[in-house]
Amino acid sequence: MKTKHFLESADVKTIAAAAEAEALKNNWAVTIAIVDDGGHLLNLHRLDGAPAISAHIAPAKAHTAALGRRESKIYEDVINGGRVSFVTAPEVKGMLEGGVPIMKDGQCIGAVGVSGVKSNEDAQIAKAGIAAIGL
After folding, report:
1. How far apart are the first and last CA of the chain?
2. What digits encode the pLDDT tens for the residues 24-63?
3. Cα–Cα distances in Å, from 112 out to 25, 63, 122?
4. Which of 33, 75, 77, 91 has CB atoms 3.0–4.6 Å from 59's, for a disulfide?
5. Inter-CA distances, 114 with 4, 91, 103, 109, Å
6. Residue ranges of the chain whose pLDDT lies below 50
7. CA dist., res. 21 & res. 42, Å (int)
């Protein structure tokens, strides 16, 4: 039997704080969502000034990254590359850059999704959060 890693409450708080710090450092008004490996929401924070829609997009990006075990940008690239039918894939909601899986020993243990600024900046914030727990 294998050991399964998971995000603890302290990990979620550390990720959220680091992601928020990255956003604030750059004066970016975003929503940050953290999910577990099943895409279930563990934390959602909409910073002052973040668009209301970002509170829906960030969790969708995180959900997609967790279930797919890869960055949500990959799905955006697939669609932009011409495979438009991919938008009908079940449970894949946030097919825009900004969802980043949290990987530990080859296993996905969750994901961070960010929405509110340019997609590459959303991903930058997510990655800064994940880096704070040493992954």
Report:
1. 24
2. 999 999 999 999 999 999 999 999 999 999 999 999 999 9
3. 18, 8, 10
4. 33
5. 26, 18, 17, 17
6. none
7. 19
How many of the other CB atoms lie within 10 Å of CB of 129?
26
Query: In the structure encoding, which two tokens stand for residue 23, read together?
Result: 């956003």
- 42 φ/ψ angles, rounded to the nearest 5 degrees: -105, -30
How many Å apart are CA 3 and CA 21, to the nearest integer? 32
Token pair, residue 41, equals: 């929401």
Whether this model's pTM surpasses 0.70: yes
Cα 38 to Cα 78: distance, rounded to the nearest angstrom: 23
On whether the CB atoms of residues 29 and 49 are closer than 8 A, the answer is yes
Query: pLDDT tens digit string along 43-54?
Result: 999 999 999 999
Residue type, 24: L
